[in-house]
Specification:
Blueprint: E1 3-10, H1 15-19, E2 20-21, E3 26-36, E4 39-49, E5 56-58, E6 62-63, E7 71-74, E8 79-82, E9 85-86, H2 91-98, E10 102-109, E11 112-119, H3 122-134, E12 140-145, H4 159-170, H5 182-189, H6 193-211, H7 214-217
Antiparallel strand pairs: 1-11, 1-12, 2-6, 3-4, 3-10, 4-5, 4-8, 4-9, 7-8, 10-11
InterPro entries: BAT_GAF/HTH-assoc, HTH_bacterioopsin, RNA_pol_sigma_r3/r4-like, WH-like_DNA-bd_sf
Organism: Halomarina ordinaria
Keywords: Transcription, Transcription regulation
Length: about 220
């Protein structure tokens, strides 16, 4: 049975983290990795976060040798860069590949990266962690789960949370302007207004943690 692991790794502990200089006020997201022989080209999104408002705006990517990288695509709030680096000399990515793992998501803020990996089984994950220990790569395990566990709530939601959240969306609770109130939702569900509010809050937290992962809880900000 496959296993999904969310891990945090210092930027200085692996090749790609050392290659890219994620500076203060900047966040990065790995989009994909294109293998080209012994090397690989990762595509990364770079954002700059306004410390006063938390709003994202376009950031510039700089390698640690201070070479400015040319963007592939530029949008109002982000820019896409291609970064060439040798996959075989990156201990983290080569270990993931050796254990037939896949990178589901990778984000970075200054000094650290957060990864979501999928491995074929727990033995493969354990082998990956042993490799990192042998290479003195510090790992912080944030979460490990088996997505196919029978009976596990889909997207982390209980049936009641799913019902309440779906009803809120259908009735326009999250629309602008708002088209219904928690009191109206409570009347339909036969519960109190306070119970609706708490159920929606727990549902949103569960949904974000299950689909976006620990990097969102970490806030993408220092």
């Amino acid at each position: 049975m496959s296993v999904i692991a969310e891990l945090r790794i210092p930027a200085t502990a692996f090749e790609l983290g050392r290659t890219l200089d994620v500076r203060s006020g900047t966040a990065l997201e790995l989009e994909s990795v294109v293998p080209l022989g012994d090397s690989a080209v990762p595509f990364v999104w770079m954002y700059r976060v306004d410390d006063r408002t938390g709003a994202a705006e376009r950031g510039s990517a700089v390698s640690r040798d201070d070479d400015c990288l040319e963007p592939v695509d530029v949008y109002d709030d982000r820019a896409l860069y291609a970064v060439e680096w040798n996959l075989d000399t990156d201990d983290v990515f080569s270990a993931v590949r050796a254990e037939e793992g896949h990178v589901l998501r990778a984000t970075a803020v200054p000094d650290r990266w957060t990864f979501k990996f999928r491995f074929p089984d727990h033995e493969s994950l354990s082998a990956f962690r042993r490799h990192c220990r042998s290479e003195r790569i510090p790992l912080e395990v944030l979460r490990v789960r088996s997505p196919e566990t029978p009976g596990r709530p889909r997207f982390g939601l209980t049936d009641r949370q799913r019902e309440t959240l779906s009803l809120a969306v259908q009735r326009g609770y999250y629309a602008i302007p708002r088209q219904c109130t928690t009191i109206e939702l409570a009347e339909t569900l036969g519960i109190s207004d306070q119970a609706v509010t708490e159920r929606l809050r727990r549902a949103i937290v569960a949904l974000v943690e299950d689909t976006l992962g620990a990097d969102e809880r970490d806030g993408w900000r220092d």
